[in-house]
Design goal:
With 1277 residues, the protein is α+β, with helices and mostly antiparallel strands. Helices cover 38% and strands 18% of the residues. The protein is elongated.
């Protein structure tokens, strides 16, 4: 073995994996081999030739690398485990340790297997090295062979070529090239002919052509008209082609040659689908056409005769075949032009089907390309089949061919033959036709035709009989295109022009048939507010129309129908789609596309019921107008299917509506086909509807349970007002009718739209009369027209006609607003009656006409058209007062009973005897004005305001007083609670007015400037007494559930104004003195119901209460808070409690006498203001601040629980009573006592008096302040 590469001892080799080899031999280190191999084998290796092979690792990894990575990976996992174990639970910690141990064990087991296998890996490594070395040697041998082959191929090209010595010698010696071919001389052109020779040649050629035509040629009948000049014969076939021929060749075998050929078939000029198709020939196409035409002029090759037993081939005389070259040329070019026409129309139609007529035109060419089928309008709609212009006997035939145009090549022989067989037809005509051909042919051709056998004559006749083939145009198996214009001109081909004419005429047929059907059903249309109309003049706008009186013309492609007053739709047919198209015309109205699109779909699918479809549109538009107007009036519309009513309630609601009328079906004579083609009646296929076809539920947002139901039946409105309640059962939620009212709207509708209304129905209402007169004047105006009327009679006729044309379904915002307001008034009355009935007969009411209850000031209410139908509710005042008295009970702790009513029965009976008026209750607000806003309730009562000092006639937000009529109106927006709220408001005004009427009393005039009343507003009575204190009285409930009563508020001017009274500043009072006895004062007022008595009590107790207040203020200013406590025991009695267990009682024994006694001796206290006939002991009640909440049986009787000790200092004070009570230092003058006036009831005429008794004394009321100052000086020691 030879060595490939040798390495020096000091040179290192590189392994394939990038490691440096050191003393490797066949992939093993020398030291390793020395240790492993035995001594004998090592000796043999040393003596052998040393071969060093490169090491081939073959994607293997050294064992030491694998072991190192395994150890490091296991150590890293173990360190990670030790860091994460402390944060885990015991179970999770054990699970992680087990997973690590199991994984590490598996890895080291695999490593152990690899280590055991590595002991035997030396031999495998040596084999890999040898195999890699052999593969390297094989590649070197292959490359050597390839390079040798390349050298073999490329060496010949590098060789030097031989020189042309002969050509070089000739050119250098003679100067020419003498080896050219002699055939070149024949290619030199001859000399040109002169003009005379050319003319002579043309003349000879013309003669030859004439002789040829006279002797041997047979011309087809379309080519008999020809022209010969300039050595050519010219043929021109109209609308097909032009060709010129000449004769060429030897005299005994001259043939026809085509000199020029022009095809005359062209597309239409000027845009459209024809301009999109380019049919011009290029040079190659023209050459190909001439070549094919030239082949038709070449004689056919004769076929060899068939030998027979009697006549061998040599003895059979061969006759030349029958050949007519010009006939063949014409037949070929004629068929080419027909095919070209068919192809051009096909390309144009295909282009239209992909562009302007996409999805509307279907183009089909048969496999033989002799028949083109155009199906327009996508096969056609039912309306297109129903109104097709061609007569068909069956519906299937009409649906298949009514929208089909066929262009095909037809054989004229078959047309002429008809139903005769081929043999019968040929026998009958062959003799006459063949004689005619012989006479028309030339001399030589006549002889040749005469010698033809009888068996070949039919072929000759069929070949020379013209016309043979032509294009036929059929529309629905009918050749009548209903026009005099030429639609299929070969020199001006246009498929779109043909389609436009057919579709336009077909559309006119559809409109014409619909017009006839509607004309036949004109009575039904007029009964339902639909009218056919046509334009009066081309210059008149579309909106200016008149009712048609004559049969519409066929050329009128638009049908105009008036479906609403001065609103029209035009019905025509889209020539591209074949569908009926409907649009709104005139006066700028527009109902959108949704409803009109639905109408288009209905008419296209069922044209025979166009009248019903128009009625559907009319009703749909009216319903949409109602919905639109309802939304403006804040009514929520709902479809009947959304109401979830039970069948019984539906029958209850719609049982009284009349059945829908249907139009009379047309007679068969109005149809174009013998068999009537109509669509099936939709009513027979559909089940009976539960709801009317056009019905809408309008919900009142203010009354969510009430709905205004409007249905359109037989061109009339049907209206109901119903109340629905929700009911739950096992099947779910549904609604049931609890109340139903039929709405008679005709008076309101007539008032709004009719001019022939009764103007004198309300003679006294001049405003209403003027409004109706203006309505009549506006409706009788004549619409201006551009068409000139010829006479005054026509003008009057038109004006009368226009004035009478009132749509039965006319509706506008005013009419809907009036209906809405009328319904709201009905609903309001229903709710009021329901609230009155809840009082269990206590409130007796009766109904009266509204017009009899209105005053002259309520003009707006009188003008309402529905005022004749409205009623008001009258409730006696006695019933109201009785209900207020019975209902004013305390229900805070116990249920109301007979004993809990207010104890004002005698007073109430006296008031009942004086009540004779009624309270009027009526709806107001939106129903009277028709404007936006909610309906409300108005309660009206007579109020004598002249005896009451009113502050203003505008009492409150919902209460007002009419000064002229003396009517007080209570207005409530919350109708469900209006009666209860009115009872509270009426009771408050009645009770407060009862007090206000006592103000002019002469008993109050004696107070003069010390008593001043503020203007009365019926809600609060406010007055200033003693020039410094304010008292406010109102009627209300102190707490929820408590009976209503008089409530008083005692304040001072300093609490409301920045500038207090000088008296208040001098006395240093911080509050009203009577505030400590406010509860007793309030009880006195509610018990006596007497304002005069109440004011007298205020002035009587004012000195005492002011003095007590002054004592408390002084103690507070001196820092002796709590030294003296004043506890009221009655309105005229108090108890002064000192800081020790001593107390004094101070009370009025009469209006001018005070009694002061020691509370320790249990003095019996009788209030002079109480019931003096009572013999039992009256236990005084504890003081309770009016600001604190009032609770029954929860007050702690502090003054009765304390046991007071005898007051020794008070006894000593009694001993010196005469010394201090009348002293000048202690007596108060008027300047120090501003509450005392000379004319007051407690001012003594004989001067002040004082009378002691054991443990107390009596004194004049004027000494009140002196006594209180002395009592203030008492010590508790």
């Amino acid at each position: 073995m030879q060595t490939i590469s040798q390495t020096k001892h000091n040179q290192e080799t590189t392994e394939t994996n990038g490691h440096v080899k050191q003393d490797h031999k066949n992939g093993k280190k020398a030291e390793v081999l020395t240790e492993i191999l035995p001594h004998s084998e090592q000796t043999q290796i040393d003596h052998a030739d040393k071969v060093v092979l490169p090491v081939e690792m073959a994607s293997m990894v050294p064992l030491r690398v694998l072991i190192g990575k395994m150890v490091r990976k296991s150590h890293a996992d173990l360190m990670t485990l030790t860091d994460t174990l402390p944060s885990m639970s015991d179970v999770e910690r054990k699970r992680q340790i087990l997973n690590f141990a199991t994984f590490a064990r598996k890895q080291f087991l695999k490593l152990s297997v690899l280590v055991k296998w590595a002991e035997n890996a030396n031999d495998i490594q040596m084999c890999q090295n040898i195999m890699a070395h052999l593969a390297n040697q094989n590649k070197i041998f292959q490359d050597t062979s390839d390079y040798l082959h390349k050298i073999h191929v490329e060496l010949p090209a590098a060789r030097t070529r031989n020189y042309d010595v002969k050509t070089a010698v000739d050119v250098l010696t003679t100067g020419t090239y003498q080896r050219m071919p002699t055939k070149i001389k024949d290619m030199v052109p001859p000399a040109c002919l002169t003009d005379e020779e050319v003319l002579e040649t043309f003349q000879k050629m013309n003669d030859v052509i004439r002789v040829r035509l006279l002797t041997t040629e047979v011309l087809p009948s379309p080519m008999l008209d020809h022209r010969i000049e300039n050595g050519r014969i010219y043929f021109s076939i109209e609308n097909e082609f032009k060709v010129s021929l000449t004769l060429m060749g030897p005299s005994n075998a001259r043939q026809w040659w085509i000199v020029s050929l022009d095809v005359l078939v062209q597309t239409a000029e000027g845009g459209g689908g024809a301009a999109d198709v380019d049919i011009s020939f290029n040079d190659m196409q023209q050459q190909h056409l001439r070549s094919n035409a030239q082949r038709q002029l070449a004689p056919p090759t004769p076929l060899p005769p068939k030998p027979t037993e009697d006549a061998p081939v040599e003895t059979i005389e061969q006759k030349p075949p029958l050949f007519f070259p010009i006939v063949n040329l014409y037949d070929y070019l004629h068929m080419f032009c027909l095919n070209m026409q068919l192809e051009i129309v096909y390309m144009q139609a295909a282009m239209l089907a992909r562009t302007r007529w996409v999805n509307q035109l279907k183009v089909h060419m048969d496999s033989a390309r002799t028949k083109l089928t155009l199906s327009y309008w996508g096969g056609g709609s039912p309306a297109a089949h129903w109104a097709c212009p061609q007569p068909f006997t069956t519906v299937e035939e009409s649906q298949a061919k009514s929208t089909v145009i066929e262009i095909m090549m037809s054989n004229e022989d078959e047309k002429r033959r008809g139903k005769l067989s081929q043999n019968d037809y040929m026998v009958a005509t062959i003799r006459d036709e063949f004689k005619g051909l012989i006479q028309k042919a030339g001399i030589g051709a006549s002889v040749a035709l005469a010698d033809i056998n009888a068996s070949d004559r039919p072929k000759v006749v069929s070949a020379l009989k013209y016309p043979k083939t032509q294009l036929d145009l059929k529309w629905g198996d009918c050749t009548d295109l209903h026009t005099k214009d030429v639609l299929f001109n070969p020199t001006d081909l246009s498929a779109e022009r043909l389609l436009l004419h057919v579709t336009r005429y077909h559309g006119e047929c559809i409109i014409e048939k619909i017009r006839k059907v509607l004309k036949y059903q004109e009575k039904f249309l007029e009964e339902n507010g639909l009218h056919l109309a046509i334009e009066t003049n081309d210059d008149v706008p579309i909106g200016d129309v008149k009712l048609e009186d004559e049969q519409p013309k066929a050329e009128d492609s638009t049908l105009i129908v008036r479906y609403r007053h001065e609103r029209y739709i035009s019905i025509d047919v889209d020539t591209r789609t074949g569908l009926v198209r409907i649009c709104e015309v005139g006066h700028g109205y527009g109902e959108g596309d949704v409803k009109l699109k639905n109408l288009e779909e209905k008419i296209n699918n069922d044209p025979i019921n166009t009248a019903q479809h128009l009625l559907w549109l009319r009703s749909e538009i009216v319903v949409r107008e109602i919905v639109s107007l309802a939304k403006q009036l804040r009514l929520q519309p709902y479809h009947p299917a959304q109401m979830n009513l039970r069948p019984d309630d539906i029958a209850k609601l719609f049982s009284d509506i009349p059945p829908m009328s249907s139009p009379k079906q047309p007679e068969p004579d109005i149809h174009y086909s013998p068999k009537k083609i109509t669509s099936t009646d939709t009513k027979s296929n559909t089940s009976k509807q539960i709801y009317p076809t056009h019905c809408i539920f309008l919900q009142f947002l203010q009354f969510e349970d009430w709905y205004f139901v409007v249905a359109i039946v037989n061109d009339e409105f049907q209206a109901w007002l119903c109340c629905l309640s929700k009911v739950y059962d096992q099947n779910g939620l549904y609604q049931t009718i609890t109340d139903l009212i039929h709405i008679d709207y005709k008076d309101i509708w007539s008032e709004q739209f009719y001019e022939d209304n009764d103007i004198d129905s309300d003679v006294n209402n001049e405003t209403r009369k003027r409004r109706r007169e203006q309505l009549v004047k506006n409706q009788t105006k004549i619409l201006k027209r551009r068409k000139t009327l010829t006479s005054l009679d026509e003008l009057l006729t038109a004006s009368a006609k226009n004035s009478r044309e009132i749509d039965n379904l006319s509706i506008n915002l005013r009419f809907m607003a009036k209906l809405d307001s009328l319904c709201r008034a009905f609903i309001t009355n229903k709710k009021i009656e329901f609230q009155l009935q809840q009082h269990r007969g206590a409130l007796n009411y009766r109904m009266r006409p509204l017009l009899k209850c209105l005053s002259d000031a309520d003009v707006q209410v009188m003008n309402h058209p529905g005022v004749d139908h409205m009623e008001v509710i009258c409730v006696p005042q006695k019933d109201l007062f009785t209900v207020c008295a019975q209902g004013n009970v305390d229900i805070s702790n116990t249920a109301p009973s007979k004993d809990s009513t207010l104890k004002i029965t005698p007073w109430a009976e006296k008031q009942l005897s004086q009540m004779h008026n009624d309270i009027l209750i009526r709806a107001s607000g939106r129903w009277t004005t028709g404007r936006r806003g909610d309906c409300h309730v108005v309660f009206q009562d007579r109020f004598n305001w002249k005896r009451v000092p009113l502050k203003s006639f505008y009492i409150n937000d919902h209460i007002s007083l009419d000064k002229t009529t003396g009517v007080m109106s209570f207005t409530y927006a919350q109708i469900d609670m209006c009666v209860d709220r009115f009872l509270i408001d009426w009771e408050r005004i009645f009770m407060m007015t009862n007090l206000a009427r006592q103000i002019p009393s002469r008993w109050l005039k004696k107070y003069k400037e010390d008593l001043k009343f503020e203007p009365f507003d019926t809600q609060e009575l406010r007055f200033i007494y003693a020039k410094a204190f304010i008292c406010s009285i109102r009627w209300d409930s102190p707490e929820k559930g408590r009976p209503r009563q008089y409530l008083i508020d005692l304040t001072m001017p300093t609490q409301q104004s920045k500038k207090p009274s000088p008296v208040i500043l001098r006395l240093s009072l911080s509050r009203n003195p009577h505030i400590r006895v406010a509860t007793y004062l309030q009880n006195i007022l509610n018990e006596k119901l007497d304002l005069i008595y109440f004011i007298q009590v205020l002035f009587q107790t004012l000195p005492l209460m002011a003095g007590l207040e002054e004592i408390e203020v002084a103690c507070t200013q001196n820092g002796e808070i709590g030294k003296i406590s004043v506890i009221p025991r009655a309105v005229d009695s108090v108890r002064i409690v000192y800081s020790s267990m001593h107390a004094l009682d101070i009370r009025f024994t009469d209006a001018s006498t005070l009694c002061v006694s020691d509370a320790a001796y249990h003095s019996i206290f009788y209030s002079t203001l109480g019931n003096k006939k009572t013999e039992r002991l009256v236990v005084p009640q504890p003081y309770l601040s009016p600001l604190a909440p009032y609770t029954v049986n929860q007050a702690i009787k502090v003054t009765q629980q304390l046991v007071f000790a005898p007051f020794a200092q008070f006894d000593k004070l009694l001993e010196t009573l005469d010394q201090w009570i009348f002293s000048k230092d202690m007596c108060s003058d008027e300047q120090d006592n501003p509450w005392y006036v000379s004319d007051h009831s407690w001012a003594e005429e004989d001067g002040p008096r004082a009378l002691p008794f054991p443990h107390g004394f009596h004194c004049s009321a004027s000494l009140c302040r002196t006594v209180l100052r002395q009592l203030q000086k008492l010590d508790d020691i």
